[in-house]
Amino acid sequence: MFKSYRKKSPWILHYNAGSCNGCDIEILACLGPKYDIERFGILNSGNPKQSDILLVTGPVTYRSRERLVELYAQMAEPKVVVAVGACTCTGGVFRGMCNVEGGVDRYLPVDVYVPGCAASPEQIIDGVIQGLAALEAKTKAIEEPKRLFGGLHETLFFTSRRHMRQRLPHAED
Amino acid sequence: MKQSISIPLGSQHIALLEPVRFRFETHNETIVGVEADVGYVHRGVERACTSRFEFKQIPAVVARVCGLCAITHSLSYTLAVEQLVSTEVSRRAQYLRTLMVELDRLHSHLLCLAHTAENAGYEALFMQIMGDRELIMELQERITGNRVQFDFVCIGGVHRDVDAACAKAILDGLATFEPKLEALEELFETNWTLSLKYKGIGAISKEDAAIFNALGPLARAAGLRTDVRAEQSVLPYQEVGFEMVVEEGGDIYARNRVRLREMRQSMAMVRNILEGLPEGELQAKVKGKPEGESIMRLEAPRGELFYYLRGNKTATLERMRIKTPTFSGIPAMVKIFKGQEYGDVPAILASFDPCMSCTAK
Ligand code: SF4
């Protein structure tokens, strides 16, 4: 059930990891009536535990990287990271400055890159919609039984719920 | 026995757009102590400007200090460096620069008002103001080609011209915007929710504002007459009819009033600029390398912005210092927080319109 909800109404979490606020105000403009990202059912939530999509802006400064990874770790699987803005993708104009890491993908696996300085609201919406596709793919992948350890997987716990259901009667006899 | 509880707010919080962390000491909901940590977005812009970039590239770099007042940053730097390389800028370019600064002020104030409304729980008003703000953003896009981060000024002039069709579009846009601004003014003054919630909350007295060095709308709402636009003459503010806006009270309500009235002022100035736009060159030739020291102050939407440059006749500057409005305003903010209810914090914070990207650079 959650699966269909998540597809129809993903919640986003926005974190500013050292941006100039240019991309942040464009994300805010997306929430406004002209672009209105809510018509896709997308809500801006402040709580990482409820969010599915992490929108990151900024080139990841020295101080904010720990917060960023913490936030990512708190989000429940499946989750998607969208890097908004040139400086989040590669470091942009801040690349190589003394306190800057140069791109968010040094810390998090990024699914969608949205370029532009500042990324325009149309591009941001496009990126989030692409993020939705990535989210769906990840949901499917989670539901597959995981063959993490090759042939050993039957004896370990890395099985999906569906898999477990199939195996239960077998365990009884 | 009274116990004090310490509540952290931030660095990531739904009511805060900015990565800033506060730690409030509270006694029964009343704040008795505040600690602010603003360094989360420090990127080292000043240092990079004196080592990695040449002085001609820096207008585009300092614009990325802050996305909201980007034009004020690049303009302050440009004006300061023009003193060092003694470039004469044509009057047309000066007028166009002033035009963009005032349009920028319009959209920045609107964003702040929207945020204040949202933090008071008035979601519909947030939507309405964001919708009105798009009108201004469209004008900016029309003039400069980008919505935010338009690199409009360059050393010696500006990059793009405003022709007759564009001027007409701006005037039309402002004409559409004006009745909306009137409605907003009325709403902020008479709406029961807003005036009830905001009167007397987060107040600072005139003396305290002066002692703690408040700037911009924060100071003018408390009755202090400080505005760089009235004090300097590098931009033609006296010619385009600038008047200072001052309110009494120093609370959130007064700050909102200052912003609304300043928006009116800015619109009048934009109209005057378009009416009396002088002819002239867009860009002047820049010769030589910066040498010596210069200081420039401009009024950003949040208050005075200060630039100090020192060059030594090479392409790279020797020293650069940026002092931004929020940075100077932090002592006043801490002062205001003490004695307030914890529940009012988001609204007070939004009414300061703090900009952490500016502060931490
Ligand atoms: S991409 Fe450009 S506008 Fe966006 S946060 Fe980075 S510097 Fe600012």
UniProtKB/TrEMBL annotation, chain A:
Q: Which residues form the NADH:ubiquinone oxidoreductase-like 20kDa subunit domain?
A: 20-129
What are its cofactors? [4Fe-4S] cluster
What GO MF annotations does this protein's record show? Answer: oxidoreductase activity
Sorted UniProt keywords: 4Fe-4S, Iron, Iron-sulfur, Metal-binding, Oxidoreductase
Concerning InterPro entries, the annotation shows:
Complex_I_20kDa-like, NADH_UbQ_OxRdtase-like_20kDa
**What domain of life is recorded for the organism?**
Bacteria
UniProt xrefs under Gene3D superfamilies: 3.40.50.12280
Q: Report the EC number(s), separated by commas if there are several.
A: 1.6.5.11
Q: Which family does it belong to?
A: Belongs to the complex I 20 kDa subunit family.
The protein in question is named NADH-quinone oxidoreductase subunit NuoB
Origin organism is: Sulfurospirillum tamanense
What high-level taxonomic lineage is stated for the organism? Bacteria, Pseudomonadati, Campylobacterota, Epsilonproteobacteria, Campylobacterales
UniProtKB/TrEMBL annotation, chain B:
What Pfam families has UniProt attached to this entry? Complex1_49kDa, NiFeSe_Hases
Annotated SUPFAM superfamilies: HydB/Nqo4-like
Q: Which UniProt keywords apply?
A: Oxidoreductase
Q: Which InterPro entries match?
A: ComplexI_49kDa-like, NADH_Q_OxRdtase_suD, Ni-dep_hyd_lsu, NiFe-Hase_large
Q: Which PANTHER family match?
A: FORMATE HYDROGENLYASE SUBUNIT 5-RELATED, HYDROGENASE-4 COMPONENT G
Name of the protein this chain belongs to? Nickel-dependent hydrogenase large subunit
Where does the NADH-quinone oxidoreductase subunit D domain lie?
121-285, 289-359
Q: Which domain of life is it from?
A: Bacteria
